[in-house]
Amino acid sequence: MTKKLFMFEKPLGMRDTLPFLYEIKKRVRQAMVREIETWGYELIETPTLEYYETVGAASAIDDHQLFKLLDQQGHTLVLRPDMTAPIARLAASRLYQDGNPLRLAYNANVFRAQQREGGRPAEFEQIGVECIGDGTVAADAEVISVMIAALKQTGLRNFTVAIGHIGYVNALFLEILGNEERASVLRRFLYEKNYVGYREHVKSLPLSSIDQKRLLQLLHLRGNDKTMEDARELVHSEEGKRAVDELCELASALQLYGVDGAVKIDMSLVSHMSYYTGILFEVYAEHVGFPIGNGGRYDELLEKFSRKAPATGFGVRVDRLIEALGESEAEAAIECIVFSQERFAEALELARTKRREGKRVVLQHILGIRDIDAYSKKYQPITYLLGSGGKEE
Amino acid sequence: MTKKLFMFEKPLGMRDTLPFLYEIKKRVRQAMVREIETWGYELIETPTLEYYETVGAASAIDDHQLFKLLDQQGHTLVLRPDMTAPIARLAASRLYQDGNPLRLAYNANVFRAQQREGGRPAEFEQIGVECIGDGTVAADAEVISVMIAALKQTGLRNFTVAIGHIGYVNALFLEILGNEERASVLRRFLYEKNYVGYREHVKSLPLSSIDQKRLLQLLHLRGNDKTMEDARELVHSEEGKRAVDELCELASALQLYGVDGAVKIDMSLVSHMSYYTGILFEVYAEHVGFPIGNGGRYDELLEKFSRKAPATGFGVRVDRLIEALGESEAEAAIECIVFSQERFAEALELARTKRREGKRVVLQHILGIRDIDAYSKKYQPITYLLGSGGKEE
Q1: pLDDT at site B393
Q2: Which of A33, A318, B85, B322 has its Cβ near the most Cβ atoms within 10 Å?
């Protein structure tokens, strides 16, 4: 048996967006979308529900975080946990026909089931792009640059894009640890950002002191002029060196884009999204504990939908972005005209004139109001057209 | 056992929205929302998932059309099948505190499970308003008028708003049939618009020929100057006459709003939404078989959320509205600059300049393109900045 629900309750992690927050969300969404559109990305929508077997499995979100339900044919459905997998399905099936680059964008809610109250939201809005079919580093640079430009359009300052390369980490781990199983344990410490645990685990491994040092040094390959050079020295394999080359090429492109001030190389960056295959990144803003956005290259995801294609993209979480911006905006200004029946025509004409001027005007019959003192506090200015008297503000 | 899914498939009734349709949806959405905002309505969002016991039960959508799932506490959740019930929950719990009118608006997807392929969409977008706490006919007139104004802003012409009063139909049926059970059978014929079935059923009832005639006459109480007069004569009870009075008051208000040309009284109008209690309406557009929007007064819904309040609102279905508009819009114009590595900086500068002018510009590395002939057909104009040569369009 479950407890009786109170009429007002909402499911765990589900939230209402009231007018004040809605206005901020709308402004932020429009600012980002407008910038993304000028870069030639085209917006699309995909369904809220997808098949678990196909898109659900490709999504790289932990199974216990999926909202699942059964359809009448006995298939399991999921509420989309991200937008990258649905867009990969759509691109593979209908849009990516001639093998040429596709630039798609979205703003959409995604869903992650939560285990307890007071935790994270179970539904949140993401805005992002996917550049599909282009394997060049220029495409990685563009995706990072359009993200930075879009974030700046919202008014965000003081944010950093940490950039790494999953191919580098994998190459280094394979060289030293010899197999993928051991590598995955270390990768987990990195994506949880548990550097203490990483160090301890490295020290417990049956490795030469040189190899232990190499693994520990990975944590220091961050954000200074010598990072690339050190990174190239640390790794021996072709794959590792190629990853460094790609990052160097990326860094010069980002310089041309003029966004290099906002980025920081972090060779230890690893994502919990398992589909990334190359350059990857996370965005951090002051005063927000979690990344407000992330992205990267996923050259093997479209293969899961029967069509091979390189791809890269980013997604920004609107709730965290708004947290980073702070709620500095004023509520929308709405005027009000209160009228009595006799002066309906006059009130309507006044409302019409003001609306034509672009003002937001509530037109309210006096008999619909219960508490006029409380009501008059909600709107500014408020005009009374009552009885046969005059006009009062 | 279920059949194996093809990777590209989507759940029954679920659809992708490609860029061309997205642009139309966006334009229509913005046009409606902008108009609704000038009338002082404030936009809000509610969660996609709600409790079945509370909002699901209040929604007036058939149980077999609900998408249901279980949460980890054992409660049944539903994907919201409409927006009126969630907004009633939200208003009752947080916004409707002082008993004064609230004007809320939304654009949101709602969900209705479908039984077979090729049928109706299982997820579709609605745009609407709810005016809560105002029991005056002026509020009904406003809701109908803002709907008409918003539809006109999308470019829609040739549409009709059929207006009726559920209180009238209920009063007439109760007078003649004596109980609610018999009334509900007849109401069902009306909301299915099965007038042949209605007539046959009336003739099969054990009633005097006068009463049979009265029931049949209801079908003729539509859209001419004498309709109100005839309607008042047909009904005997206080409730019935009061409903006619309200419709007369509404008609004069709509005349002042200048929208009376778009409306038509239909005393036989009945909705499948069981929560309506008074004036109600449906919008029909040329060439579209289903109503593109509907609405009405629901003075008893908020009581289900422990707070009594009169209310009225409308909802328009964006998919049907777009069908009514016809797809006359051209695709968004996007330019393209194709560059080779050597001329990256130059290409970037050109893209930047064009974007600043408000143009949408794709910047594409030549190595990312597989089939240049196909690619060049997608964008117009396309500029090539390749090798050390000149510029070509």
Answers
A1: 65
A2: B85
Decide the pairing of beta strands B293-297 and B311-317: antiparallel
Please tell me the predicted confidence (pLDDT) of residue A1: 41
> Considering the entire predicted model, what is its pTM?
0.94
Which residue type occupies A236? Answer: H
Per the CB < 8 Å rule, is A100 touching B371?
A: yes
Note the pLDDT of residue B175: 96
Closest chain A CA to residue B375:
A100
Q: What is the pLDDT of residues B87-109, one digit of tens each?
A: 999 999 888 888 899 999 999 99
How would you classify residue A155: left for phi > 0, otherwise alpha for psi between -120 and 50, otherwise beta?
Answer: left
Residue A2 clears pLDDT 60, i.e. is over it: no
Beta strand pairing status for B263-265 and B159-165?
A: parallel
Q: Judge whether B113 and B67 are in contact, CB under 8 Å.
A: yes
Tell me which residues of chain B have a pLDDT lower than 50.
1
The confidence score (pLDDT) of residue A331 equals: 67
Nearest by CB to residue B11, choosing from A5, A50, A135, is A50
Residues of B in contact with A345 (CB under 8 A): 256
Residues A381, A334 contacting (CB under 8 angstroms): no
Phi, psi for residue A282 in degrees, rounded to 5: -140, 145
Contacts of A15 in chain B (CB under 8 A): 47
If DSSP states are collapsed to H, E and C, what string results for B86-118? HHHHHHHHHHCCCCCCEEEEEEEEEECCCCCCC
**Cβ(B105)–Cβ(B128) under 8 Å?**
yes
Residue type, A217: Q
DSSP string, B292-356: SEEEEE-TTTGGGGT----EEEEEEEHHHHHHHH-S-PPPPP-EEEEE-GGGHHHHHHHHHHHHH
In whole angstroms, give the CA distance from residue B376 to residue B386.
15
CB-based contact A9 B123, cutoff 8 Å: no
Retrieve residue B345's tokens.
């900086």
Q: Count of alpha carbons within 13 Å of B74, Cβ hemisphere only?
A: 5
Q: Do B98 and A374 touch (CB under 8 A)?
A: yes
Q: Are A151 and A129 in contact (CB under 8 A)?
A: no
Dihedrals phi, psi of A200, to nearest 5 degrees: -60, -40
> Which among A269, A339, A294 has a CA at the least distance from the CA of A151?
A294
B207, B173 contact by CB (below 8 A): no
Pairing outcome for strands A102-111 and A42-43: parallel
For residue A291, cis peptide bond before it (omega within 30 degrees of 0)? no
Q: At A119, which amino acid appears?
A: G
d(CA A123, CA A113): 8
φ, ψ of residue A231 in degrees (nearest 5):
-65, -40
Assigned token pair, A90? 């759509």
Cβ within 8 Å of residue A11, ≥6 positions away: A122, B47, B49, B50, B51, B71, B75, B77
Q: Which of A108, A106, A102 is nearest to A131 (CA)?
A: A102
- Given the DSSP bridges, would you call strands B76-79 and B49-51 parallel, antiparallel or unpaired? antiparallel
Rounded to whole angstroms, what are the CA distances from A328 to A15, A227, A325, A393, B40? Answer: 21, 38, 8, 29, 22
Termini Cα distance of chain B: 57
Judged against a pLDDT cut of 90, whether residue A106 lies above it is answered with: yes
State the amino acid at position A18 in one-letter form: L
Evaluate whether ipTM surpasses 0.90.
yes
CA distance A188 to B343: 41
Residues 6 or more apart whose CB falls under 8 angstroms from that of A88 comprise A58, A130, A132, A301, A302, A304, A305, A311
CA angle, A35 then A36 then A42, to 5°:
140
